[in-house]
Amino acid sequence: MKVYIPFPCVDGGNGDENIPVMQSACLATSDVNDFVYQSPTQDDFVLSSTSNTHDPSVFGLIESKPFPTATTCNVQLLGAREGYSGLSRNKNVYLSVTGGATTVPPTTGDLQILGLALSPTRILFKPNLQKVRLT
Hints:
Blueprint: E1 2-6, E2 18-25, E3 35-38, E4 46-48, E5 60-64, E6 72-76, E7 79-82, E8 92-95, E9 101-102, E10 110-111, E11 113-117, E12 122-125, E13 132-133
Antiparallel strand pairs: 1-2, 2-6, 3-4, 3-5, 5-6, 7-12, 8-9, 8-11, 10-13, 11-12
């Protein structure tokens, strides 16, 4: 099931953009802003990324959870997102070796571009589903 929620424009526009979000099952330990990939063994179930060496590719990030320990999450598929740190503006954002966001390309694991850093704390999430194996 796809849900569309309003989200402010990145460029300070009138805020009438829609960001695609889908609802999915997830682990109770998954957190908001975690990057997620589809479970290889369960349908409609996402797993939080803890490294840059899993298959399949990251395709979304957790936008919200109804309750902190809930096993249902809303997964943002594209668009701007606040809540990260240490990023270099106007640089590609990569999946780090620990499963987080970084603007420093990893030298081991898989190289996957997740989007563009708009500021040290905000990304434009537009994941490339193709990745390069570095190890």
